[in-house]
Amino acid sequence: MSTIKNHVQLIGNVGQEPTITNLESGKKVARFSLATNEYYKDAKGEKQTDTNWHTVVAWGKTAEIVEKYVVKGKEVGISGKLKTRSYTSDDNEQRYVTEVVADEILLLGSKDDK
């Protein structure tokens, strides 16, 4: 059971071009947004879409894969864990951000996808 603690799997579309940062330590980090959609029928029987946005962070080799192959609109599968961090905003308020730290990325869709 220990393998399912804090485990996230998502399939969605990349919302914007990934941001790649090379740190002084030599490590590489990639950040991008991922949209996941759920479909349901409302009371009138009409199809509705509920979109959720997730911030995805990838490090090291996974970040290199993101840099080479992941572009806006691309469908990807993500496996990783949730990580919450806090920071102080410019107006001196404590803010919290929850991100998906990706361990694995699966490139989906056809090879013709950009």
From TrEMBL:
It comes from the Bacteria. GO terms for molecular function: single-stranded DNA binding. GO terms for biological process: DNA replication. Keywords: DNA-binding. Signal peptide: none annotated. GO terms for cellular component: nucleoid. Homotetramer. HAMAP family: SSB. This is Single-stranded DNA-binding protein.
